Amino acid sequence: QEKSSRLSAALFGEDCEISHDQLYELLKYAALGKCHNATQPSWCRIYHQSHLAGVVVIVLHEMSQLHFYKFYLQFKHLRRVFRHRFTLTPSANFLASLYGEGANLKPQNTAQGLVSTSSECIPKSSDLQCDPIIRKYGEKKRGLTSYTLTLEEQKKNDYPIKGSPGCKGYIYTECDQQRTDSSPLFGLDCEMCLTAKGNEVTRVSLVDAQGQCLLNELVKPESTVVNYRTRFSGITKKMLLPVKTRLPDIQTRLKKMLPHDAVLVGHSLNADLQALEMIHPSVIDTSLLFARNEGRRFKLKFLAKAVLGKEIQCEQKLGHDPAEDARAALELAQFFIEQGPAKVAELNLEMLLTTEKLAEVSQNKAAFQPQECRVQKQLNEPPHLSKPCFLDCLQVTGQKPLLLGRQDLDFSGLRQSNLSTSNKQILQRALEDVPLSTFSIIQFSLGPEYIASHLLAGLCEKVRSKLTDMLTIYAGPFEESFCLKSVKKEFGRCGPIQSLTVVTETYQPYVCIQYEVLEAAQLAVESLNGAEVAGSCIKVQRPVTAAVLDCDVLIKELELDVENEGVIYVAGLKKSLTEMDLQEEFSQLKDLETLFLPKDLQSGKHRNCCFLKFQKSQSAVDALEVIKGWTVKGSKLRSRHALASGHLWRWIWQMNHSNGEQGGNILYEKMEQLSDSEQDLRKKVKKLDQHIKKLYRSLQNNTLCVVLFPGVN
Predict the structure, then answer these.
(1) Whether the predicted model's global pTM rises above the 0.70 cut
(2) Residue 570: which H helix or E strand, with range?
(3) Residue 164: is its pLDDT beyond 60?
(4) What pLDDT is recorded for position 607?
């Protein structure tokens, strides 16, 4: 429930998969705040953590994404209320990774556990003396004037210096007043394009000490642009066409805006001042402030994440945002000045950077392995060093974690006295005890009779079959000598086709098309039913099976899903178009927030469709009207509301490209048994959804609530 405390997650499309470590980060920071070395999660952000009333984790024992989509209509409350949804990577021991390995709730052991937690995370004082930051600045806090670059440091690091031969024609800011520790700080950042002259400024941003943006201006370079460097600068040819502002205009404005005792802050600020052709006597360079050995420098993106808990220069965005970078550099300098060198050294940035690089290497290796191999590798790997358990930390700080679950469930060695025999009893206890606890884990279960392996295999096959039917359309009848190529071309404009076959069992030929995304199949039904294709007026319909009788209801509910608010699907794109081309093409659409271009998960090639996410739902509706009749590089576009969020289309792809684990004979022998129990299962799931609804409604405002489908592995 979000009021003065708020969760923001900027994940869309392929980034909707998170690891258990990332979940651990979120829960630890939500529960502990900045105590015990808890930092903002790397993948999302909690605003006003101190206002959180509590954290509630609801675990649906041995249920997975398979259950969620098989019983999507039954999970009525869950899918409508919870706005953020992510796929969790498989884990050998789910609960252990949730609580932290070796978790122990016995009070007599917690103090010792906490001491070891602190000693693991914070460098010893003897180590601090060797830290380059301590060697450079000492341990004591100082005022900002202690961190401004000396004239020698400016010369050494290629800053424009007054009177220097290489700075003829440069504009001096004339900020000559004596600096004090209360002098105002200003963050500055520029984006450059490569021109015939060299690097020239194409965008300038200036922010004040409160983070307010004072200047964010596009600049027309004097020389012809050779390379816009759009990937980094975010600048395109189209953006600069109407721009009249030139470098002298910016120089004049900056000179007027800066007080006579202003201190400029930036990351490798020398490059910005050189490009601006300006000289300023007092600067703080965050690439030098956060000192490293052997002249190396931390990147701004890393420092923002490690020190401030902020994600900047995200890959989803087109290029860097200079205002964001200027603000980040400014906040880093403010943090350094306010906390002092010792506190900064305690962050152990070198270790954090090494850990991050190792994680990236591990992820890159895992990305090239098939899913089955990855899971098997995780199951076979020896346990790594145990993570400190934040539940122990909670007890030391006087908070009492609450654990509620069934008697037959394994809590991975965690001591807990709140065992119940039914979901109803668990709910009753939760309604009474959750308001008294700041951190609660509530575990519900369908019961062992519903999670047998053969039932799961049958359930998986039914979901796979239903998805296949929803992705499939039949079109016809066609003339005997119809052109299959023109049919494929017309239906291909609705989205990526997985397979196309001609049906010859009928009096006249029909075509069976299976798409890769739900939106494509629905678009074909909506736009081509009754249309003339390959010289025939055709009918387009899905196969008539028991599984798709509720298809219209399901499609409507998927459209209304909170994850699809403000998201539209656009098809008919030429595969030669890059993400940059599309960003430029769709930039005129109002409130466009994100563009997501799906890739084939095997070949990595772009599909001929994309998803557009808007800041407001109405803007998405307006965009659908605007796109009607649009042609991009000779290709006519088709669009509709999105049906499948990123993790769903990814999951559909995996379902369609994986083989069933059970043998066919065994599976079909058990299907009858599954049909008998499925009605009971629907009722159970519906009841479970009502339990979650009751528990959720009883929570205090500003409670972070997470519902987990851990699966069987």
Answers:
(1) no
(2) strand 567-571
(3) yes
(4) 82
Specify whether the CB–CB gap between 15 and 646 falls below 8 A. yes
Question: For 263-313, how does the pLDDT look when each residue is reduced to its tens digit (9 = 90+)?
Answer: 999 999 999 999 999 999 999 999 999 999 878 899 999 999 889 888 888
Dist CA 546 CA 555 (whole Å): 16
Average pLDDT over residues 104-131: 42
Q: What are the residues whose beta carbons fall under 8 Å from the beta carbon of 125, sequence distance 6 or more?
A: none
The alpha carbon dihedral of 147, 151, 152, 154 has a sign of positive
Residue 59 CA: distances (Å) to CA of 2, 96, 334, 446: 21, 13, 41, 11
Please, which residues have CB within 8 angstroms of residue 550's CB and are 6 or more apart in sequence? 73
Q: Which residues in 643-671 are b (16+ Cβ under 10 Å) and which e?
A: bbbbbbbbbbbebeeeeeebeeeebeebe
The residues, ordered by sequence, that sit 6+ positions from 187 with a Cβ below 8 Å of its Cβ are 205, 206, 207, 208, 211, 264, 265, 266, 326, 327, 328, 329, 330
pLDDT tens per residue, range 190-214? 999 999 888 899 999 999 999 999 9
Q: Which residues contact 50 (CB under 8 A, 6 or more apart)?
A: 33
* Alpha-carbon span 688 to 706, nearest angstrom: 15
Give the C-alpha separation, 645 to 82, whole Å: 14
Distance CA 658, CA 49 (A): 42
